[in-house]
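Changelog entry

Holo records now carry the ligand SMILES as an explicit input line rather than a separate metadata file. Below, a converted record for zinc ion, shown in the new format.
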Amino acid sequence: MKIALTTLLTVLLFNLAGAQGRFDTVDIKTTHVAGSVYMLEGAGGNIGVSAGADGVLIIDSQFGPLTPKIEAAIAKLGKGKPRFLLNTHWHGDHTGGNENFGKYATIIAHENVRTRLAAKSAKVVKAGLPVITFQQGVTVHFNGDTIKMVKLPPGHTDGDCIIFFKQANVIHMGDHFFAGRFPYIDLGSGGSVRGYLTNVENTFANLPVTSKPGVKIIPGHGTLGKKDDLEKFRDVIRASVDFVERAIRKGQSKEDIKAAAFWGQYKDWGTGFINTGRWVDIVYNELSQQK
Ligand SMILES: [Zn+2]
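Structure line, unchanged by the conversion:
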């Protein structure tokens, strides 16, 4: 018994060390986006920052072990600690630092984010849960900007927002934009491939209303983008959905579809977390359900 327990502890400690080790080598890279808006890249979802006279507001919190490094990067901007933390959606690579930042920042998110975080695991302590929740959207007036969180219909999950900085002319897309790579769509969290495509198309269609020419677009994953990067992303999603839909209608199997020469043109898009096979799985799994 004692040996078993020791073994168990060793395994646990090893895993913890491994998890920590994974983040030891991560550096937080700060990029000035526009006006008082910055983007922080580390591991997990990109963080948007507004730093100015009113203090600091951040969008998403990456993984918990990275909090000290993120805090150090924010401190360098010289505007203090975050007063607000906005979550684009509930996934752990965007909310893992919530319970650390939540000790002093007010967390704001769609109500499904709170529900899913609370239900998912007892590990998310109360400090990590959104304190202010909403159904449609909320506006934060901060640092001279009008920061609008807009709830999208089910797409990446059932609780995603995109966030507009009206004056700075910046959009944080959350995981409705993976720059230059296939996206993850979480069908198990109320997500939808068709909904995702529609959300991206609508964002694009609304750009003339929501932003000015030269808008900067912060993706959930990947490097800072512009309008044409989002346009390319939309086209890849649309072409993938069309291709898989036609193939299903022709009676092709998932394996046939994965092996198709069609994907050769998107080789670079499958080099991230979602490779071409996983992308086909996601699209096929949804479309094959609804002929
Ligand atoms: Zn996500």
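Spot-checked after migration. The chain has one domain: 16-238. DSSP finds nine helices and twelve strands in the chain.
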